[in-house]
Structure formats: structure tokens, C-alpha cells
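ok so for the tutorial part 2 we go from a plain amino acid sequence to predicted C-alpha cells. step 1 is just haveing the sequence, like this:
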Amino acid sequence: MASTTISTQALQGFTDATSYDTHRPSYPPQSVETLIQALNIADIKGARVLEIGAGTGKFTSLLASRKEEFEIMATEPHADMRKVLQGKGFKGVKVMEGNAENLGFVEDGWADAVVCAQVCEYERVERDPQEAGIWWNIGDDMECRRLQGAQCSEPNTIGALLMISDNSEPEWEPATKWEAKMKDVMWSFDNLEPRFRHKQWAKVFDDQLKSTPATIQMADPLFSLPLGENIEKWTVWLPSKALVRDRFFTVSHIANLEGEKRETTNKKIMDALDSEDVEQNAKGEISLHGRTCAYWATAIPGASLKEGG
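step 2 — the prediction. this is what the C-alpha cells look like for a chain of 309 residues:
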């Protein structure tokens, strides 16, 4: 099997996979159901699902617990995260080392759907997948990771889901002033690596149609456009300011901070959490706001343009 390359930032930043698993959010039930329906695998007993970048199994657990009893192949290149995922022992889930560029162990035509949730890298989609979906969980306190386009093995659908903080996106107004302060903290570490907020992931799909009159016969679009989309706003409550802070420190480029930079960032986070507009309930829990973004696509049926279709 070909070697799997992971960026140094991700390799180091996600070493504490147990902390990541503890503090990162799961996905809202309605968003999950919307994507499963869009991928045409709802109510399909034993449908085969290829999950790319499964991490510690946040989304894997939701797939494995469904009534359809999916047959799931979950790939993850990071050894520490894969170890946490394997330790959960989900029924119907086979855990493999690999990423979107390293799927030689998946037989062509095996998957009914390909999914990736909060995945960190993106590539041009290749090998003629049929359908795909993309998810992001984007919380006011979270930075999403990059989408990695799947080199799928002729599935029917492809989809993705991301949980994304309101403070991650330039056009999104944070729900509170303290979360706006956290947006400043997150953006202060922008190292220009492609992330959801840079919108480069959409090029995986949009670039399918790039052509000129001289090159139109070379166009080979795989997916229909526009992408299917569903965005759900949410609020979660965390038990303490310390746990809010710990959640921030699961973001790879913050987790990698050391010494004075780490201490300064910790102070900025705690200062933001001392703001007057931090909302707490009777239990003392702190509210955080964000959105879950789901995207999906279906393969273009028939021959490609370069084949005369």
C-alpha cells in the first residue's frame, strides 16, 4: 500500500486524539438525516458507505447506529485518531489506514455512497465516483478542516458534513461579542492553508466545467452542479469555561502552540469568556453557536464529454 502523507500541523496537532474526541461536537440529527436522504441510502438495508477521514469516529458512530445497519469502511491516515476509532468497536465498521489519495484497497463499485465529515485536505475528485456528500460542523469556537475530495470507487453518491463556528467565516456575524473576539483569535492564526472559509474546496467541483472552445472535448465532469446544500444553525451548552477553552485547543494550529504563544492565546480565550455577554443557564453552562453545513453531489449519468456523451 502506498504511504499516506499527513501535514506536519495535522500530525502534531491531533496527537492528543482522546482530547479531540472528548471536546469536538457531534452532528445534529436533522442534518444527518438530510444528508443520508440526499445520498439515497436512507432505508437501504446494508448499504455500503465509504467514509474518508473518519478521525475518531464522531460521524462514524452516527452511521453505525442507524437502522439501515450500513456496511461501513472508515479510512483515517492519522495513527492516534485511528487508534481511538478502532477502540470503539463499532458494529459493521471496518477501519483502514488511508486517505482520499490512497484507496487501492477499495474495490471499484463497492460503495453506494462516499462521505467525509470535518475532513482536513482536499484534492481533485478522480476515479469516476457516482455521488458524494460533504459535511462541516462550524461552531462559533471551531475552525473547520479542509475537504479532501475522494478518489472514489464508483459510488452512487458523495456527501460531506462540517460543524463550523460562526467565528470561522468572514461573512458570518458571530451571535455574541465574546464569540466575535474568538473570531479574531482564530483568524490571527490564519496560515493560508486551504480551509472551509477560503472556499477553495468548491473548486473540486466547479473546476470540472473549466474549458475553452478548443478544449471542450477534453472536459470530463463527474458531478452535477450546483451542489446540494443544507445549513442548520445550532446552539450547544458546555459545562464550564475551562471546557470551552479546551475545545479551542483541539484545533490543530492552536494545539501546536508552545511557550509564550500558548500562554497568550490561553489568556485571550479566557478574557473573551469573561465578557459580559457570555450566556450561562441555571446550571452554569455556557452557550456556543454555530452551523452544520452539508453538501452533496450525484454523478452525471452516461458517457463523459470527451467520450462524445
